[in-house]
Design goal:
501 residues, 23% strand, alpha+beta, 11-stranded mixed beta sheet, single chain, 4-stranded antiparallel beta sheet, 19 strands
């Protein structure tokens, strides 16, 4: 703590010069909590990548406006309609072009879809589409038909996940993304900073920000101090303890759900009594207002309460250490090896106090009889534990992660988190697979009811995860800029939404 105060003093000592320069400039500095290992457009659904390039460098056909609650909005597609069951026709804007000067047309959309869905590249995009097959057919330069098999009633909403790249882009990860957005990536100093500069030939309204530099600092107190000193304009993820200045600090609804994925394929986690005991061992109330903000909400589902199909009848399992011990005793009497060591796998800098939260959970698990160790990884190594194919000979694991769903429908979560073939699923349950397929294809009241039933079944019957919390975010904003964080800020940070006072 002393070192943090010293650093803050050093920053404040330079603030007169730094802030004076910043006031005259429309360049901004954004300080983020973790480095990025990729700037690949088809990985922009990962929040640490999306905050930099999504809709800044790489755009999508459609865009979900959660800031102003306008719903699904045009972006690179001006309009769309379902031309026949399962097929949607998108009419593309004619005035867009890529940052390399090439024109944007339907061939680029077709290639972007095929590239993102290809098994020759490990994009995140396919995980949101489940078993749905997507086929794109060019009608003319400005019109494209996209067919989903089976028919997908919210296909235009799913198109918010497909970032558009030029048709010449190879099917391999790129370090130099070319997009139609208002900015181009001009510099990437690995481990230090990324710089975006505003384009003069952007098809839309020119944003106020001329240049954005992203720097990375793991310590939330350092991030907050940099904004206070004028060395940065925005820190999107600081801790509640550092959010002490009402003139600069904002709390906002966070679309992240914090949970621990249970790997049910490995003993003893294949026993539902063990999974229930893990959930009952945790005193979740003890975390709120201490290691986590007061606004955090105990979770029973992978999606936040604002999502379609939210089931109010599902209640969190109680904190019941004696009940947890009894379940373990019953399982042990039946031959379940409950003494097998379990590893909590965590991601460093996932959120403020993440290590302390997982250490406290570890102690609570051990208090009821589990043997638990904690292993923290940087983001690139963590992803190897988080997504299939999972490491061989890994032993029983609880993978602690946050999942973002700000798009209002569980379809963006359920397949890849819970289907037997889902890329981040820890279960294999034919009933769950069918429930996901039915809800995905449904519309109207049936879609709502199907999702409600799935949420209840996953939590009450399968006990698929150790559900933790729906999270609250805190951001520090330099008074010179005009920006208010929202639920969208967690997964993307559109520079066009930043103004100057």
């Amino acid at each position: 703590m002393k070192s943090k105060r010293i650093l803050l003093g050093m920053l404040m000592a330079t603030s007169v010069v730094t802030t004076g320069y910043a006031q005259a400039s429309k360049d901004v500095t954004v300080v983020l909590d973790e480095e990025v290992d990729l700037v690949e457009p088809c990985m922009a659904t990962r929040s640490n990548i999306g905050r930099i390039i999504l809709q800044n460098v790489s755009e999508t056909l459609t865009e979900l406006d959660v800031r102003s609650n306008k719903g699904l909005m045009p972006r690179l597609a001006e309009k769309w309609e379902e031309s026949q069951p399962g097929t949607w026709r998108f009419h593309l804007r004619k005035d867009a072009k890529f940052s390399d000067g090439s024109a944007f047309d339907a061939a680029d959309v077709k290639h972007s879809i095929e590239r993102a869905m290809s098994d020759k590249i490990s994009c995140e995009t396919p995980r949101y589409f489940g078993d749905t097959k997507i086929e794109a057919k060019v009608v003319d330069d400005n019109t494209i038909d996209i067919t989903a098999t089976p028919a997908q009633p919210i296909l235009p909403l799913l198109m918010t996940l497909v970032t558009i790249v030029p048709s010449e882009t190879p099917i391999e990860f790129t370090r130099q993304p070319i997009g139609t957005g208002p900015y181009k990536l001009t510099e990437w100093k690995a481990g230090q900073s990324i710089t975006l500069e505003r384009r003069d030939d952007y098809w839309g309204t020119a944003p106020a920000v001329t240049k954005a530099t992203y720097v990375f600092r793991a310590d939330p107190a350092v991030r907050a101090a940099m904004v206070a000193a004028g060395e940065a304009d925005l820190a999107t993820n600081i801790s509640e303890l550092d959010a002490t200045d009402p003139k600069m600090d904002f709390s906002y609804l966070n679309s992240e759900t914090f949970y621990m994925r249970v790997d049910t394929s490995i003993k003893p986690l294949d026993d539902v009594r063990v999974r229930k005991a893990l959930n009952m061992a945790l005193d979740r109330d003890a975390f709120i207002g201490t290691l986590l903000p007061k606004g955090a909400v105990k979770a029973v589902a992978m999606v936040p309460p604002s999502t379609l199909g939210w089931n109010q009848d599902v209640k969190p399992l109680p904190f019941d250490p004696e009940g947890a011990k009894k379940l373990l005793e019953e399982a042990k009497a039946d031959g379940v090896a409950v003494d097998t060591p379990i590893t909590i796998v965590g991601r460093t800098n996932n959120f403020p106090n993440v290590v302390e939260v997982l250490e406290a959970a570890q102690q609570m698990f051990e208090a009821v009889g589990f043997k638990v160790k904690l292993q923290m990884y940087e983001v690139a190594e963590f992803e190897k534990q988080y997504s299939k194919p999972y490491p061989e000979n890994r032993g029983p694991q609880l993978v602690a992660a946050q999942h973002d769903n700000s798009r209002g429908d569980p379809v963006f979560s359920m397949y890849f988190k819970y289907d037997s073939k889902g890329r981040q699923s820890g279960i294999s349950d034919p009933k769950v697979d069918q429930m996901i397929a039915d809800a995905t294809a449904a519309t109207g009241d049936k879609r709502t009811e199907d999702w409600k039933n799935l949420i209840a079944y996953l939590y009450n019957d399968v006990v698929a995860d150790v559900m933790m919390f729906h999270m609250v975010g805190f951001a520090r904003v330099n008074p010179r800029i005009d920006f208010t964080p929202t639920i969208a800020t967690n997964s993307q940070l559109q520079l066009s939404e930043i103004g100057f006072k």
